[in-house]
């Protein structure tokens, strides 16, 4: 479960960047194509925040849809998974979004 390592890295990054007594909310943007399982990340987040300024913080996860642009025909379309194939039959697709894992907002007390 790589979500544990991801949760630890997120917590470390937030604690390094934010000098506050208590963090009440953290918002993450997670791309649909990132391979991160949101429920597993929530579970791990609760474990790794114990005893830190993030303990008890609300974790809001915003899913970023996958988008692709076909280099063959120029079509832009939504991607559901990493099996990338345009309706025109081309696999020459540039992934534009959906692979993100970003800390979008942090609320402090």
Automatic annotation (TrEMBL):
Signal peptide: none annotated. Ni(2+) binds at residue 2. Pfam families: HypA. Keywords: Metal-binding, Nickel, Zinc. It comes from the Bacteria. Zn(2+) binds at residues 70, 73, 86, 88. Gene3D superfamilies: 3.30.2320.80. Involved in the maturation of [NiFe] hydrogenases. Required for nickel insertion into the metal center of the hydrogenase. Belongs to the HypA/HybF family. This is Hydrogenase maturation factor HypA. It comes from Saccharopolyspora rosea.
